[in-house]
Design the sequence.
């Protein structure tokens, strides 16, 4: 089960949060041949972002934790596109990374 942590500016409502998380789950699941319910997504609101001492826009950072999978690169692209759409930002301003984890046991 991929576990997704999104650090981003808060969306205007809980309904938008749920829609954004669901869109990410669906976007990531498809190229991995999983169901959206097989992808766990959490949103972590970002209050402030800086470069050095200068405030900058709070761009979405999407970290996908999971084992190596076929379709990983397509899932990364899909996640970036979904986050860009949900947060209304250009896709080149979204950071997406796959963090490989080994199962315990």
Sequence:
């Amino acid at each position: 089960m991929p576990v997704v942590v999104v650090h981003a500016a808060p969306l205007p409502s809980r309904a938008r949060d749920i829609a954004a998380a669901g869109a990410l789950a669906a976007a990531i699941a498809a190229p991995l041949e999983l169901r959206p319910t097989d992808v766990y997504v959490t949103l972590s609101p970002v209050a402030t972002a800086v470069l050095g001492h200068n405030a900058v826009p709070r761009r979405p950072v999407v970290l996908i934790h999971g084992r190596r999978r076929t379709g990983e690169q397509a899932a990364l692209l899909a996640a970036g596109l979904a986050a860009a759409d949900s947060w209304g930002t250009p896709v080149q301003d979204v950071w997406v990374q796959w963090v490989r984890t080994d199962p315990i046991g």
